[in-house]
């Protein structure tokens, strides 16, 4: 042309089939732990409801952080000895968890079935109590580690208490029918007038109870 410029003969690149189509946003990536950047096991104790309940039972005088350190120390000792702390903890609770408990009713011991949550609480109490009674050195973390390890192997004082309760329940299974009769030793269906609810407690209730009786006597 007159300006001396030459036209480009480059071929434009082919258009993509998805060109012009809006791309979907990438799905958000969930962090591996409760706080982004933390390790996967950093908050495993505080995130588990079972561990949180165990810490609350282990706590004394409101010192929750001390109870956390004790349980974390017991888990560290288990890990150093080549055990999986979570498996040992769950196995210890399962082996120490009772199925029955004994209640005094009608002047005798009556076996009662336990719900899952109460049974788990009893197992935790027995494990903690047995750990505190140990005389070994190393602090409470070492004592708790030893008791958890023994309970996981179906040994120790906590499992012994469970077996003692079950043995007592089996010896008193003949009294199991008293569960449906409340605290009365009367015949089934009879009205127990000795129950506290039938006794007048206050002066006004006594006068109200004696009023009809006086009119009958007159």
From TrEMBL:
InterPro entries assigned: Ribosomal_uS7, Ribosomal_uS7_CS, Ribosomal_uS7_dom, Ribosomal_uS7_dom_sf
Give the source's domain of life in one word.
Answer: Eukaryota
What Pfam families would the database entry show? Answer: Ribosomal_S7
Chain positions covered by the region annotation Disordered: 1-26
GO CC terms in record: ribonucleoprotein complex; ribosome
Question: What does the record list as GO biological process?
Answer: translation
Which UniProt keyword terms apply here? Ribonucleoprotein, Ribosomal protein
What residue stretches are annotated with the Small ribosomal subunit protein uS7 domain? 47-173
* MF-aspect GO terms: RNA binding; structural constituent of ribosome
Q: Which Gene3D superfamilies match?
A: Ribosomal protein S7 domain
- PANTHER family per UniProt: RIBOSOMAL PROTEIN S7
Give the protein family. Belongs to the universal ribosomal protein uS7 family.
Please give the name of this protein. Small ribosomal subunit protein uS7 domain-containing protein
UniProt organism field: Strombidinopsis acuminata
